[in-house]
Amino acid sequence: MASPLDIEQLLSDRVKDIETSGIRRAWALAQACEDPVNLSIGQPDFLVPDAIKQAAIDAILADNNGYTQTAGDAGLLKSIYGRLNSQFDWEFSDTSHHAAMVTTGTAGALTLAFLTVLGPGDEVIIPDPYFVIYPTLARIADAKAVLCDTYPDFRMTADRIAACITDKTKAVLLNSPANPTGVVLTETEVNDIASLCKDRGILLITDEIYDEFVFPPTKHASPASTNEDVLVIRGYGKTYGCTGWRMGYAAGPKPLIDAMLKLKQQTFVCAPSVFQHALVGAYDIDLSPLIDRFSKRRDMVVELLGDVTELVVPNGAFYAFPKIPVAHGLTGMEFILKAIEQDVLVIQGDVFSSHDTHFRISFAVSEEKLEQGLTILRKLLQ
Ligand code: PMP
């Protein structure tokens, strides 16, 4: 019999370099919890609106099950064009500056963007803390993710970005509202970043997956309002409770979208056809009751943890990133182990950062569970 294949030895460095051990260890430990209060999940707890579910069913029954155009279904693209036109005055025609494409999740758009722009020796500036896949995507592209340290207020400002720029910088990645901090940048901050990138000839990629999750009176500001060469990346999963449908979009300068389309044609091919049809009417749905509810949950986090830890108040998304009081002398992992002992799941900060001083709470859970979890965390932090 032939000797078994040594798969480990066959794996590429790019895969070996992906760090998942921190999350895996936490999840493995959490298996022991019977009925945990799970504040670790980055997905909404509400259901897909009925109208959208029905549209998905209708799309299947109407036999919209084949490939779509690589850029996306015409109906969905039209709704995206309308959205971006009303927000940024961007035009979409064969001769216009801009183009858009539907993608396989927001992650699909980010993957295409990184692989399209970055190569060996190139640098992309990302925030620290960051959404976990940013450094991995840079690694996959054989490029370097340069961490822009935003502690302690988590604001990725133009000054902080400028200090990270080198002659190898090709792109800056902005994420407001941010995962894992919930921080929303102001219009002035965003505009300063937009002009910095314009002046320095750097592509600004803006991951706006949480654009709808902004708590009044805070407003979402996009750098696309003042810089026509920004690559805007957005998703449907978080907004409409359909993360598993893997739907997102990218819009920006046409030559960039065209290059991303070349890559998409030979990788993802198209985004899921049924769900493209299902989401055509998504923008007709009034999200304000939902945002109101998330805003109240945010208030609960501030009320229960604000006086026992250093907490930057989240004005968007559904995360908070409190600091573990130094007096406790605990690393993030040590703290989350204490939380797990009390059946509460949160994620240690070093999963999202080069620092291990904070932890992430997701408040996309019922008010009852949230209160239960926060009360336990409060005691642990006191
Ligand atoms: N960007 C950010 C900031 C995120 O938090 C996430 C999901 N957690 C994504 C992108 C990926 O989203 P999707 O599921 O649409 O690929």
What would you say this structure looks like, in words?
The protein is an alpha/beta fold and 382 residues long. The chain folds into two domains: 7-47 and 287-381, Aspartate Aminotransferase, domain 1; 66-284, Type I PLP-dependent aspartate aminotransferase-like (Major domain) (Aspartate Aminotransferase, domain 2, 3-Layer(aba) Sandwich), CATH 3.40.640.10. It is built from 15 helices and twelve strands. It has a seven-stranded mixed beta sheet. Helix 6 packs parallel to helix 7 (133-140). The radius of gyration is 21 Å and the shape is globular. 44% of the residues are buried. The model has no long low-confidence stretch (mean pLDDT 95). The structure holds 4'-deoxy-4'-aminopyridoxal-5'-phosphate (PMP). Residues 42, 105-107, 131, 175, 179, 207, 209, 235, 237, 243, 248 line the site of 4'-deoxy-4'-aminopyridoxal-5'-phosphate.
CATH arch. level architecture of the largest domain: 3-Layer(aba) Sandwich
Q: From the alpha carbons, calculate the radius of gyration and give it in angstroms.
A: 21 Å
Q: Order of strands in the sheet with the most strands?
A: 2-8-7-6-5-3-4
**Attached small molecules:** 4'-deoxy-4'-aminopyridoxal-5'-phosphate
Which stretches are poorly predicted, pLDDT < 50 over at least 5 residues? Answer: none
N-to-C SSE string, H for helix and E for strand = HHHEHHEHEHEHEHEEHEHHHEHEEEH
Name the shape in a single word.
globular
Biggest sheet layout: 7 strands, mixed
What is the number of E strands? Answer: 12
